[in-house]
Amino acid sequence: MINKKSIEIYNLSDDREKRLWQDCIFVFDSSALLEFYSYSDNEWRSISENIFTKLIGRLWIPQQVEYEYLKNKEKTSRKPIKAYKFLIECEKINNGNNKNLEQTKSNNDSGYINKISQGVEEINNLSTKEINKISGQFKSLKEKIAKEDKHPYFEDKTFIEDFESVIKDLKESLHNHLNIFKDELAEFEERIKKEIANKEIKIEEIAQNDPVFEIFNKYFEVGEGYSFDKLMEIVKEGELRYRSKIPPGYADKPGNADKEDDKKGKEDDKKGLSIYGDLILWKQIIDHAKTVKKPIILIINDIKEDWCYKNEQKRIEKPREDLIREMYDFTGMEIWMYTFSQFLYKSGELLKTKVDNKVLENIQEIEQELLKEKENKSITTAEMLGKIGNNEDRNDLIKILRAEDYQMPSYHHPQEEDYWREEVEVENSIGLRQTIRTNLLRVYPETFNSCDAYMDIPMSINPDIQKVTSPRLNKTWGVIAKPTPSPIDGYFRGDFTYNNPPARVFGLYLIQE
Q1: Which DSSP string do the residues of 141-195 spell out, in sequence order?
Q2: Residues 6 or more apart from 30 whose CB is under 8 A from it?
Q3: Which of 225, 245, 401, 486 shows its CA 20 to 30 Å from the CA of 104?
Q4: Helix (H) or strand (E) holding 436
Q5: Sign of the alpha-carbon dihedral angle for 353, 354, 355, 361
Q6: 3-state secondary structure string, 5-65?
Q7: pLDDT tens-digit series, residues 239-258
Q8: Would you put residue 94 in left (φ > 0), alpha (ψ -120 to 50) or beta?
Q9: Considering the entire predicted model, what is its pTM?
Q10: Which residues of 446-462 are buried (b: 16+ CB within 10 A; e: fewer)?
């Protein structure tokens, strides 16, 4: 007999959510803790006073989170200084050392004061140029009507002289107004610099005195660490899990990330035990849940595919089923996940906490800004591939892509459906059919980027494909154009990744449904 209740742990009803919140342990990941340094004094004080005080004895972090937090907190606490500096200067994003690529590009969301100054100079140069044009045209007009014995001419020329003085006044007026504006802008810039200097001092004081750390130290309990032998056991297990892409943590293994926002830049490359950091903290969470015999709610802002699914707003929709099952099988306990802004919102609803709506809105905005910060470091296909020369340049580009946080364009539609390792029937140019297994079949609800679907297949499969049929979806597509090999070794999957082996990409149009 089919047991309908067996699926309940994978879905979150309102009743189940209320029950979890009544008895759970709230576990925070280092990404959620470190984000506190982006909040204002008022915001983190409000959170600690209105929420943490109600959860004494229920806030816990694994020892691995403690290690990652302490390792990164000083650097993170000083990070807001850059945000102030970039009000004046343009943030430069390094494109690497490839001779065929521009060395840097500017983040458009920065350098406001410098851009205003440049705008003033452009106005000055343009106005001078245009007034000189006006003066030249007026001079030509005067010369044209100067001779009284030839048409065109006017007997009374006083109005001509009057207008000449108007042009002269315009030139002087614009020059004077621009100079006044430049003086005002210089004063404004000095005031901004003073304010920034004061903010830097305050941020440095927070970094040294660290009241955020004191809050965590007051309200959070910390779990025990593992011996080196135990860590080595986890590494061995991790090797197997990561090869099979069993969560969590496999996205931290070089070459394993599948999604655009999972790729790491040079600065974030992980080596040694740090590659297995997520798996280590996961094991510690399981051990703690088994000991205290309570369900777990994990607060995590690093929302990668090896932890959870996310919705269109890039918030957590639900944990990965593998994690829910593993937690339940080993401990008999349930688990769910939220981003920190989701946690704050739910706290108001389920714990009856009182956090100002402005605080909630601002924290949601900060989460979005941090996501935008990653997007600002991306570089488009045209910018990169359009500048690739010979094979040596191509290899240099691969190194840059793997070293820096650059990303190929995403071909995501908000309502797309992804079918991994989907079996489809393909027909070639002479009508022969065979069944193959795709890397990915991505189906759009409407025509998107000139396609109704994308198909990604291994290079080992014959690319002579004219039609594609999915028996499960009952749909048939035609191939729009010749298959495109992924320009970098790796599955295309609508994004750039550098997994092996390389793949071919097909754009498809719907023939039959």
Answers
A1: HHHHT--TTSSS--S--HHHHHHHHHHHHHHHHHHHHHHHHHHHHHHHHHHHHHH
A2: 65, 68, 69, 72
A3: 486
A4: strand 433-437
A5: positive
A6: HHHHHHCCCHHHHHHHHHHCEEEECHHHHHHHHHCCHHHHHHHHHHCHHHHCCCEEECHHH
A7: 999 988 999 988 887 655 54
A8: beta
A9: 0.60
A10: eebeebbbbbbbeeebe
Q: Are 355 and 344 contacting, i.e. CB atoms less than 8 angstroms apart?
A: yes
d(CA 375, CA 409): 11
pLDDT at 408 over 70: no
- DSSP H helical segments within 86-157, as ranges? 112-144
CA 285 to chain centre: 27
C-alpha distances out from residue 367 to 74, 79, 305, 385, Å: 20, 15, 17, 31
| 238's tokens | 């991790």
Q: How far apart are the first and last CA of the chain?
A: 35
> 249-260 in b/e burial notation, b at 16+ Cβ within 10 A?
bbbbbeebbbbb
pLDDT at 25 over 90: yes
| Cα separation, 198 vs 191, whole angstroms | 11
Helices in 210-301 by DSSP H: which ranges? 211-219, 228-243, 277-292
Compute the residue count for the chain.
513
Q: Residue 46: is it exposed, middle or buried by C-beta count within 10 angstroms (0-12/13-18/19+)?
A: buried
| Residue given tokens 């306990």 in the structure block | 333
pLDDT digits (tens, 9 = 90+) for 282-309: 999 999 999 999 999 999 988 888 898 8
* pLDDT attached to residue 255: 57
pLDDT of residue 280: 95
- Indicate the helix (H) or strand (E) that contains 423: strand 423-427
Q: Quote the pLDDT of residue 93.
A: 53
Query: Cis link prior to 501 (omega < 30° from 0)?
Result: yes
Tokens 């080595």 correspond to what residue? 232
Amino acid (1-letter code) at residue 281 = L
Mean pLDDT, rounded, of the chain: 79
List b or e across 16-31, with b for residues whose CB sees 16 or more CB atoms inside 10 angstroms.
Answer: eeeebbeebbbbbbbb
Amino acid present at 373: E
Contact between residue 207 and residue 78 where contact means Cβ atoms under 8 Å apart: yes
pLDDT confidence bin for 157, thresholds 50/70/90: confident
Amino acid letter, residue 62 = P
Residue with tokens 């969560």: 247
Measured CA to CA, the distance from residue 92 to residue 427 in angstroms comes to 49
Token output for 145: 């009507």
In this prediction, residues 216-243 reach a mean pLDDT of 93
Residue type for 153, please?
Y
Nearest in space to 364 (alpha carbons), one of 390, 344, 346, 383: 344
For residue 401, pLDDT over 80 is answered with no
